[in-house]
What we know:
By secondary structure, this protein is an alpha+beta fold. The chain contains four helices and five strands; from the N terminus they run E-E-E-E-E-H-H-H-H.
Amino acid sequence: xxxxxxxxxKAGERIFINGAVLTVSQKVTLSLLNxxxxxxxxxxxxxxxxxxxxxxxxxxxxxxxxxxxxxxQGMIAFHKIYDALLVVTSDETTKAxxxxxxxxxxxxxxxxxxxxxxxxxxxxxxxxxxxxxxxPEKAA
Length: 140
């Protein structure tokens, strides 16, 4: 079976796979052989860093990936922020990207949605966090 995804972890690093948290005691290369929901620790955004609406959206999508058992609560938070961003965003290119993100989340393609959101961080960083919502408690 051919590996679909390979990545290396250093001793002590964590990875989140299908809601489980794994840590390694020594440098290791992992190969995922089938589809799995995963997030590397280096891509985890802490709650204190969710200071803009786009970062809040990232945090909620991250919570959907890390805590799939909390999906219902996470989707409510996602839609609050997502809908608010669609309303306040005037740039049509950004709106199209947000709609793509919404479609990815709806299809449970959260890792791809996170990559797209990271790409929008700089574009929307100037906006104040006026569309904040209460974040799910059990993220990261």
